[in-house]
Amino acid sequence: MELSKKITEFLLLLLLTSAIMFLSLSPSSAVAPAVRMVGGDKIAHFLAYSALGFWTFFSLGDVWSRLRSRYLRRYVISVVYCIVVGTVLELIQPLFGRTTSVWDFTANTAGALFGTFAALLIFRAGLRRSARRAGRKQSGGTSQ
Length: 144
Description:
Blueprint: H1 2-25, H2 33-36, H3 40-59, H4 62-65, H5 71-92, H6 102-138
Helix pairs in contact: 1-3, 1-5, 3-5, 3-6, 5-6
């Protein structure tokens, strides 16, 4: 069961990364008008990379979720992954008739930082909840 969960998480990460790649390398004319509005593409970049950072953090593995001291490593790896994906896509866009933009890179990075930080907060809240439950079980279920 655990292996199939990890495979599913990896495939979903691959699917999300592929969708971002497809949208980043598609011709500008194929982009929805709402995204082409002033600043709309930066919002789209931010949201896409927020989702990518969030999902990357949670798909890195249950092994690290059992080790409280390793959450910072998950955060860094997730952010680095998102920044590498965003940078590579920005740099190869001219090969697909698009332009490279420092502002797109900035929106990608900000989204990656935000999404991964949100995942980190949720992860840490889950650890605290688990620790409280474990404490209650050890003390015989009494609350103070």
